């Protein structure tokens, strides 16, 4: 039987509204921007409690070693393509407003692939993968809808941003908030986290329950805003709630993170209210570590890890992430094996595709119940990638990510032998991790960005608020969606938290003498991440590690050969928002932009 007939029968049965099992799961991904790895309280900080994020992890899986890229654009490119940014020409600095640079158009994205499986696809919030032309923006790269901003960050109230390159003669500044291609001036003045949460809830409410949904919520929080600081929603409330935090930058950051955590709870709660949570995968992550020093420093913390945003040390790339779904085979545990941001495309597409094929098979079983047919179908099932990609397997070839669902779902060790942290032909600064996540070989330094941060001060009277986790909107929504399931208990929470915060008890991480040396990797460094996760001691001169270094260098050369030169370019003064009614527009499609009205003389 031909593939076309298989698909035809499937589509007919769906059109008739048959109630089939194994419906493809809804997928909801929530991204924080520039959140520190120490700033989710399940990792041990008692300064404040991220009740909803913690509840997601405790009810599902906490990813202890989730690796991202070190900065914004590369992370989002890796997430949506399953490829290392160095294979996309996006391994350099983030895309600036007014820069004609974009995700390569010949590369499939996760939303475009899911659309082939019948998903509705939506993005709320940040894009940051190109906006010089309409064809480079979200609704032309796989998303059915987009409400949010195209550039790297905006003001929490103004939704304005400046071109951030130093190679232009004047400051280019404009408004960047839109529904699709329509500027959303009417929403100016609304606090960004609240606004993006409201728009997300509207998407969920409007979603046809018979159609699977992919929803990506890319928050502005907790990135700095328009005035180069994390902006506050209500200063009086912030001071009343977090007045015990003396560092004002940290206080503002924690307050913004509280609103972000509340957003997570509202989204989970809405999914439950809409009877969708029982067939949904929810992933929460940060795109990179917090910028403690330098540009866009926001008051975040990556303690006790070394490094920060833009650094290839663990504090820049080993970031907080959790996944919850009733579809998980095993729940309530900490996954200690490496998961890379490129893994999400094959992982989520894989489970969606398997569900798709199960539906094909089930409908065909009802239509044609014959031994011969099932023999043919079984062969096709083994090659489901061919079916779900419409006969074109190229979209799923040459990925750097691997399908981790069986590993995450069943707490099984993965076979990821080597993965690239980053490589950049413009600067001698790269890192690769191998030997199933044990050894990191890196070269070069980013100076102060590679040093250790201090732990935020915590009053002795503060303790972890277990009751707030149990009473959180996320936990209540999960319990309501799974009646009869044994819920979280204080003992379970404390046990999981102790495991998730094990870095704090690592002797080398806590050795003050080691942490104050701040020896830079001016040349090659080798770290044993199992024994020394805080990268306090390089083993590069250990003769017993020579073969490890040689192996990792061979792996690095493979990544280097695949690298495409980065496409960074200067800011185009033709993009000036002053020409386009004060907004950042797709200036390379000038004829489609709203022009500034001519002044009457």
Q: How would you briefly describe this protein structure?
A:
The protein is an alpha/beta fold and 601 residues long. The chain has 18 helices and 19 strands.
**Mind telling me the CATH superfamily name of the largest domain?**
Alkaline Phosphatase, subunit A
**Main beta sheet strand tally, sense and closure:** 10 strands, mixed
**Structure classification:** alpha/beta
Shape: globular
CATH architectural designation of the largest domain: 3-Layer(aba) Sandwich
Give the tally of β-strands: 19
Query: Under the CATH scheme, which class of the largest domain?
Result: Alpha Beta
Give the overall pLDDT as a whole number: 89
Lateral strand order in the biggest sheet? 9-8-5-4-10-1-11-13-2-14
Query: Which regions contain 5 or more consecutive residues with pLDDT less than 50?
Result: 1-21, 370-393
Radius of gyration: 24 Å
Counted up, domains total: 2
Describe the structure.
The structure is a single chain. With 601 residues, the protein is an alpha/beta fold. The protein has two domains: 26-415, Alkaline Phosphatase, subunit A (3-Layer(aba) Sandwich); 417-450 and 506-565, 2-Layer Sandwich (Arylsulfatase, C-terminal domain), CATH 3.30.1120. The chain is built from 18 helices and 19 strands. It has helices at residues 3-15, 51-59, 72-81, 110-115, 192-206, 235-242, 248-273, 314-317, 344-367, 371-382, 384-388, 405-410, 466-470, 473-481, 490-500, 507-510, 512-517, 546-562, and strands at 26-32, 61-63, 66-67, 120-126, 145-149, 160-162, 173-175, 178-179, 182-183, 213-218, 280-286, 318-319, 321-324, 333-335, 339-340, 418-422, 430-434, 439-443, 524-528. Strands 9-8-5-4-10-1-11-13-2-14 form a ten-stranded mixed beta sheet. A hairpin with a 7-residue loop joins strand 16 (418-422) and strand 17 (430-434). Helix 1 crosses helix 9 (344-367) and helix 2 (51-59) runs parallel beside helix 14 (473-481). The protein is globular, with a radius of gyration of 24 Å. The N and C termini lie far apart (73 Å). 51% of the residues are buried. The model is unreliable at 1-21 and 370-393 (pLDDT under 50).
């Amino acid at each position: 039987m031909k593939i076309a007939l298989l698909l035809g029968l499937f589509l007919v049965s769906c059109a008739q509204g048959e109630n089939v099992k194994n419906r493809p799961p809804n997928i909801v991904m929530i991204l924080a921007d520039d959140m520190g790895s120490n700033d989710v309280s399940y990792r041990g900080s008692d300064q404040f409690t991220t009740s909803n994020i913690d509840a997601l992890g405790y009810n599902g899986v906490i990813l202890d070693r989730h690796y991202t890229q070190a900065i914004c654009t590369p992370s989002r490119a890796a997430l949506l393509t399953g490829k290392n940014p160095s294979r996309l020409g996006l391994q350099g600095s983030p895309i600036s407003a007014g820069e004609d640079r974009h995700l390569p158009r010949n590369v499939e994205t996760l939303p475009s692939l899911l659309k082939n499986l019948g998903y509705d696809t939506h993005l709320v919030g940040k894009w940051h993968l190109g906006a010089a032309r309409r064809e480079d923006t979200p609704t032309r790269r796989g998303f059915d809808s987009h409400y949010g901003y195209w550039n790297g960050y905006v003001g929490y109230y103004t939704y304005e941003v400046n071109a951030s390159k130093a190679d232009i003669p004047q400051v280019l500044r404009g408004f960047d908030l839109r529904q699709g291609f329509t500027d959303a001036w009417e929403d100016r003045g609304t606090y960004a986290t609240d606004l993006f949460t409201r728009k997300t809830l509207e998407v969920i409410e409007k979603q046809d329950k018979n159609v699977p949904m992919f929803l990506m919520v890319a928050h502005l929080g907790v990135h700095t805003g328009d005035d180069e600081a994390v902006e506050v929603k209500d200063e009086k409330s912030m001071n009343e709630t977090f007045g015990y935090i003396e560092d004002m930058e940290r206080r503002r950051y924690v307050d913004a993170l509280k609103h972000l955590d509340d957003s997570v709870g509202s989204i989970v709660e809405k999914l439950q209210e809409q009877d969708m949570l029982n067939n949904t995968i929810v992933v929460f992550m940060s795109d990179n570590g917090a910028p403690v020093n330098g540009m866009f420093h926001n008051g975040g913390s990556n303690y006790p890890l070394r490094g920060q945003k833009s650094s290839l040390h663990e504090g820049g790339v080993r970031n907080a992430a959790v996944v919850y779904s009733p579809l998980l085979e095993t729940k309530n545990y900490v996954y200690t094996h490496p998961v890379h941001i490129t893994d999400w495309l094959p992982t989520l597409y894989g489970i969606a595709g398997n569900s798709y094929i199960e539906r094909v098979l089930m409908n065909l079983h009802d239509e044609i119940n014959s031994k011969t047919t099932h023999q043919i179908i079984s062969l096709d099932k083994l090659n489901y990638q061919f079916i779900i990609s419409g006969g074109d397997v190229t979209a799923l070839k040459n990925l750097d990510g691997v399908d981790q669902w069986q590993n995450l779902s069943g707490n099984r060790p993965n076979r990821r032998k080597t993965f690239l942290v980053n490589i950049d032909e413009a600067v001698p600064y790269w890192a690769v991790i191998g030997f199933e996540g044990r050894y990191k070989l890196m070269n070069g330094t980013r100076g102060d960005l590679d040093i250790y941060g201090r732990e935020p001060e915590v009053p002795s009277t503060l303790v972890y608020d277990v009751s707030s986790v149990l009473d959180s909107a996320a936990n209540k929504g999960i319990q309501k969606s799974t009646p009869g399931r044994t819920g979280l208990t204080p003992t379970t929470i404390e046990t999981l938290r102790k495991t998730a915060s094990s870095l704090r008890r690592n002797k080398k991480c806590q050795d003050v003498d080691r942490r104050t040396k701040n020896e830079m990797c001016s040349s090659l460094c080798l770290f044993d991440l199992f024994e020394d996760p805080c990268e306090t001691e390089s083993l590069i001169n250990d003769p017993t590690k020579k073969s490890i270094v040689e192996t990792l260098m061979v792996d690095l050369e493979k990544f280097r050969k695949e690298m495409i030169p980065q496409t960074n370019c200067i800011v185009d003064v033709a993009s000036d928002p002053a020409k386009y009614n004060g907004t950042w527009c797709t200036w390379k499609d000038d004829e489609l932009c709203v022009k500034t009205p001519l002044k009457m003389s």
